[in-house]
């Protein structure tokens, strides 16, 4: 029986001469090593699933924004314009995330996640400034029915996009995709606030419109904070509790 040292020496000899003869144990992709056929590299599979989730949510949000543009053109509602800008911003976060999945790079994915957090926070600032300016210079929205319809479209589109992203993010263990799901959820709440504003103005309480805006700002700030921790948690985020 060979001693471990002799065995190592033999293995080394076999490995060294294997390149000259055709007895090298590492058969390439064109070799017939049986079970390697038909298998997709896990990172490629993950990349495809990530791109599918990003693409699907982008299509949903694109459609949502188009519906809102049509309503905005018909009504000229400022509140709806604000929501519309949110939805285009939401769709834009799909681009760096899609590139990260395409590159199959964890670092790019993390960078995209941080970008998403920044966009969530920026949208909170935008909603806050808009609400404060409405308090100072009241301008109750008109065309309330169209406004409510636009808000409902925004809510539906963002909610579906949030579900697609969050589910894929958990499945692929991607904090960035989960953060982007949170982003769509934040925008769903903004759209819901548009509906609520239309209702309170219709009931004769226009002051409630900017107050709802401020409440939603607080919700988005909370979501951006949660998303920051999700992305900072990296690959071993708190979704590993099972």
Low-pLDDT ranges: 4-37, 235-242
**Annotation field: number of helices:** 8
Strand element count: 0
Structural class: mainly alpha
**End-to-end separation:** 46 Å
Rg calc: 26 Å
CATH class: Mainly Alpha
Describe this structure in words.
The chain has 242 residues and is mainly α. Helices cover 77% and strands 0% of the residues. It has helices at residues 4-18, 42-75, 78-92, 94-103, 106-136, 144-171, 175-202, 208-232. 39% of the residues are buried.
Characterize this entry briefly.
By secondary structure, the chain is an all-alpha fold.
Show the helix and strand layout.
Blueprint: H1 4-18, H2 42-75, H3 78-92, H4 94-103, H5 106-136, H6 144-171, H7 175-202, H8 208-232
Helix pairs in contact: 2-3, 2-4, 2-6, 3-5, 3-6, 3-7, 4-5, 5-7, 5-8, 6-7, 7-8
From the structure above, extract its key features.
242 residues, mainly alpha, Alpha-lytic protease prodomain-like, 8 helices
